[in-house]
Amino acid sequence: MENIKLASLKTKQKTFIKVGDITVGKDFVVIAGPCSVESEEQTLHTARAVKEAGAHMIRGGAFKPRTSPYKFQGLGLKGIKILEKAREETGLPVVTEVMDPRDVAWMCEYVDVLQVGARNMQNFSLLKEVGKSKHPVLLKRGMYSTFKEWLSCAEYILNEGNPHVILCERGIRTFETYSRNTLDLSAVPAIKELSHLPIIVDPAHATGKTSLIPSMCLAAVASGADGLILEVHSQPEKALSDKNQTLTPQMFSRMAQNLFSLREFMKKMN
Ligand code: PEP
Ligand code: MN
Question: CATH fold of 17-35+54-61+74-264, please?
Fold first, then answer.
């Protein structure tokens, strides 16, 4: 693929990224937590529940890329400090979205993985800045992006000297309206044919519907994904963002058991 150099499978066999006790690319990683950090109580409650259910990292947005300026924009620094507390209490590394290049340096002091969201996938100033940071980056696929465009964005980060890039398939826009997006699971084997970077799947933003999530999670595991990212809230109906795709801790726990069983079964197959 033209101009995919550092991200290409021709350059390297596999990228492993150590985050806390887990090595992304080697161990199957489950990241879970609320779409948005709303309060300390909500975040800590969810963090404890997802840890108990076997999650390896906690997610939560403090800077939210909302379609409307009138919707909840996130708690900013206050939210980041709540996430820091959640990590202190549970030991789970924190994944959170960074939207502004000016926020990269200070956010690295607080969080373990910087998420670049779908809407910012081609924000080249942001990509260069996270590339300079050397912090692990979760790079989501833009909703209209080809694999080549996505890998070119990873290339920006790698080219700044940061090799710690995790890709995340989160669904693309198609003519379908029943689901929020269309989960393109072919991204998993396709990216593995093209690149050494680990790839995880986000069935929540891909489907927008909790009823579709359990089967898409199992399908993602079966496709060979390196992990999953999911939205969990103690009271999804009260969530300030993405409530229709948010699981209760009970739903998450049940699903996590099935995922880990399928993963074990697949290990035996290989
Ligand atoms: C999110 O993870 O909450 C999010 C906004 O995701 P995406 O960028 O994939 O829409
Ligand atoms: Mn969300």
Answer: TIM Barrel (3.20.20)
pLDDT digits (tens, 9 = 90+) for 177-221: 999 999 999 999 999 999 999 999 999 999 999 999 999 999 999
Helices and strands (H, E) in the chain, number of each type:
9, 10
Residue 240 beta carbon below 6 angstroms from any ligand 1 atom = no
Q: Is 180 in the pocket of ligand 1 (CB under 6 A)?
A: no
Indicate which residue's Cα is closest to atom 4 of ligand 1: 117
d(CA 119, CA 240) in angstroms, rounded, equals 19
CB-CB contact of 161 with 132 (8 Å): yes
Residue 59 CA, closest ligand 1 atom number: 2
- Name the residue ranges covered by the structural domains of the chain: 17-35+54-61+74-264
CA dihedral sign of residues 78, 164, 242, 261: negative
Spatial CA neighbour of 95 closest among 41, 143, 43, 40: 43
* For ligand 1, mutation pick of 31, 68, 72, 97 (most atoms within 8 Å of CB): 97
Paired tokens of 230: 């999911």
